[in-house]
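Priority: medium. Attachment 1 of 2:
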């Protein structure tokens, strides 16, 4: 899985439209093997990003959990610590 795609479910505050779009963009980039599609493929690329973002919004709305929501700041701090250990 692409490292730049972050977990979006069960966070407080919930994922924003920008976060969902960024994840969809990374997913389509990974599948297509292209970060900047040609002009000929641009429309298909953008359509795919919008479709994936829409599917993501539907998925996040449908998921349920009994677990308490994660705190974004705490999760970011944990990620920074893992990064320090990994790249130290």
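Attachment 2 of 2:
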């Amino acid at each position: 899985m692409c490292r730049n795609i972050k977990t979006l479910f069960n966070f407080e505050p919930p994922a924003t439209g920008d976060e969902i779009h960024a994840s969809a963009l990374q997913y389509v980039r990974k599948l297509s093997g292209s970060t900047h599609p040609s002009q000929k493929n641009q429309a298909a690329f953008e359509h795919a990003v919008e479709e994936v973002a829409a599917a993501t919004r539907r998925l996040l709305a449908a998921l349920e959990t009994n677990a308490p929501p994660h705190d974004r700041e705490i999760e970011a701090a944990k990620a920074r610590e893992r990064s320090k250990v990994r790249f130290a």
